[in-house]
Backbone:
């Protein structure tokens, strides 16, 4: 069975500082990895995905994620946080058959 | 990116009534659509997977007779919550996938409140 863990319920970061939202996984085979963002009372918006190739993936709104196979992680990063980045972030993995498993979500709070 | 719509965005109904939620892929043909349920401050829980023209595959613990899913075309899937009760109140989100790459495009969600 595939699983995704987001160890932090909430991450607080000052505006302008770099941010990291953590994600670790347990899955076999060659899965795909995703990050999504959710604003209040809204559906999920796709940020980025990793399938293969370069371990650093760039996505929307200046976000990027680094795939690390040895640490089984896929952390989301941004060099300089904006207040508008404050939202709920979900890591997800697709291990096959299009069934996606989501992490529990991390609330990002960017402090002005 | 691809656009998925949901209708209605918000619905309030009385206990015992049925509610239909529509999910449409606006600019692509979705071979597979997914229905999720999200409780406050929790992650998404997959309810069922539906492929056009075939019966939906329900996740363990999801009552198929209560949550009726119809995927009539490559651009439309519907979720009907039958005989709704207050415990069915939740945020329902659909997503659509167009191929094997696994990327899903999500609708904006439907907030269901059962009184």
Residues:
């Amino acid at each position: 069975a595939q699983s995704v863990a987001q160890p932090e319920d909430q991450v607080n970061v000052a505006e302008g500082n770099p941010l990291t939202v953590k994600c670790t996984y347990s899955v076999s085979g060659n899965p795909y990895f995703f990050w999504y963002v959710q604003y209040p009372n809204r559906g999920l918006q796709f940020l980025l995905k990793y399938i293969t190739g370069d371990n650093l993936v760039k996505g929307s709104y200046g976000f990027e994620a680094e795939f690390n196979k040895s640490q089984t992680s896929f952390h989301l990063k941004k060099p300089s946080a904006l207040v508008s980045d404050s939202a709920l972030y979900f890591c997800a993995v697709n291990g096959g058959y299009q069934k996606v498993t989501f992490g529990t979500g991390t609330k990002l709070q960017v402090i002005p | 990116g691809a656009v998925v719509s949901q209708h209605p965005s918000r619905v309030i109904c009385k206990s015992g009534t049925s509610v239909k939620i529509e999910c449409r892929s606006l600019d692509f043909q979705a071979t597979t659509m997914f229905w999720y349920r999200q409780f406050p401050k929790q992650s998404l829980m997959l309810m069922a997977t539906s492929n056009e023209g075939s019966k939906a595959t329900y996740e363990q613990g999801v009552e198929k007779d209560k949550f009726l899913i119809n995927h009539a075309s490559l651009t439309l899937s519907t979720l009907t919550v039958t005989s709704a009760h207050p415990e069915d109140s939740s945020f329902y989100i659909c997503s659509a996938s167009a191929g094997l790459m696994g990327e899903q495009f999500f609708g904006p969600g439907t907030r269901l409140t059962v009184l």
